Each structure stands twice: as structure tokens, then as C-alpha cells.
Amino acid sequence: MNYNIYWLSNFEKIKYGAMGIGGFFLLAMLFYGQLMIALPFSFIGILYIPYQKKILISERKKRLKKQFKEGLYALSSSISVGKSVELAFVEALNDLKIIYYEEDTYIIEEFTYIVRKVSMNDSIESALLDFALRAEDEDITNFTNVFITAKRTGGNLVEIMKYTTTTINEKIEIMENINVLITGKKYEQKILAFLVPFIILYLHVFSSEFLEVMYHSLRGRIAMTVALMLYLVSFIVSKKVVEIEV
């Protein structure tokens, strides 16, 4: 599995396409109040499909990183008690199957793949390198490079594994803590994103005469267009602000 490629099913394409088109249609109706403008504007919502695809890829890689942390703990524990690297991966796989019940869990699939490759007289180095290339994750790549270098140069694999595992896991834990801290900010961003449409909807219900001027005059349409553009830009910027990469 290439973790940077996500193939949307037909159902997902229809679902996210409908969500995007529907969302932009409602947004256009709020800002312009005219069906003839809202209908063509709504097709911008098609862009929600690739946007959601990026989100799904990001979420999948986050799950992989979290599972990889557990895999490192299991692997380091097996190596530290004196087991060979090959046997350590087998033991780590068994430990992971206790933690994760689903057989299709990413890290279980990857460790199963590595164990299978080794049983077919392939090297662990090539199996790990293949995993790192498909994951395209900095921590997995760093671990693979350190592991391959230590094994080829005959270094103290136990100490190197302990140090590497501790370093990578500390980094992952810091990232998880940051995500917890900014969870509240993410909710605030979502609330603020609905604030402007809510205000317009409120005016439409309780002060419709005010919006009639905005909907049916040239200056009003220009003002609403500028407001819509500013709203979309602020939404995009706020999304980027709360998405912190470690």
C-alpha cells in the first residue's frame, strides 16, 4: 500500500461531491439570494472531492504513525532481551496482534509483510526500505536509515534501537500533545466558520428588507462578492493556522 495514494470509491466520490456542491449552493444562496447565480456557483463544490481526499490521506498517515510508535516499542523490547532481529520482528508482530484486534491494521500488515519477506530469504533491510518509501514519513524513514546503517556496520544494535526508539517516540508524543492542545482551537475555527453564514441567515429571516437591497442592486452584489471572497480566504487561512506540523 502506498500511503500517499487514496483511491476514492464511487460512493465516496458521489458523497463528497454532493456535500461540496450542496454546501457551495447554500453558501451562494445566502450571499446572492438568486438561484441563477447559486446553480453555477455550486459546481465549485466539486473541488471538495480532492480536498477531502487529502484529508483522508493525512488521517491515514497519522494512524500509521501512531501504530508505528507501538511497533517500535514492541520491536525494541524484543531486541533488548537478546533476540535476533528476525525473531524480534516475529515477536513484535505477535505483540501487536494483541494490541490491535483487526488484522487489516496498517502496522500489522507491514510487520506481516516484513516477516513474510524474511521467511522468503529476503533481507530485512530491503523490506524496511520498501515500507519507508511507501509511507513517506520522516520518522519511519529515519528509523529505517539508522537500522540499516547499524546492521550493516555491525554497531551495537540494542543500544542504537533503544536510543532511536526513544527519540522517535518522544517526537511522536510531542506531536500528539500539541494536537490535544489545539483541539479546542480547531473547534473554535469550525464555529467561527459557521458564524458568517449564520448572521446572513439571521438577517434573511428577521431583516429581509436589508438583504433585498444587497441581492438586487449592483453595489449590493459587489459588496456581497467581496464579503464572500474575504470569507473564503479567511476560512482557508484559519484552517492552515490550526494545522500544525511537527
Descriptive notes:
The protein is mostly helical and 246 residues long. It folds into 2 domains: 60-168; 182-246, no CATH class. Helices cover 83% and strands 0% of the residues. It contains 11 helices and no strands. The longest helix is centred in the first third of the chain and has 33 residues, at 48-80. The chain is elongated, with a radius of gyration of 25 Å. The two termini are 24 Å apart. The mean pLDDT is 87.
- What best-fitting shape do the alpha-carbon axes yield? elongated
On the 0 to 100 scale, the average pLDDT is 87
**Major sheet: size, sense and barrel closure?**
none
Number of strands: 0
What's the number of helices? 11
Beta-strand share of residues: under 5%
Poorly predicted runs = none
Radius of gyration: 25 Å
**What distance separates the N and C termini?**
24 Å
Query: Structural class, judged by helices and strands?
Result: mainly alpha
Helix content: over 70%
How many domains, in number, for the residues?
2
Order of helices and strands: HHHHHHHHHHH
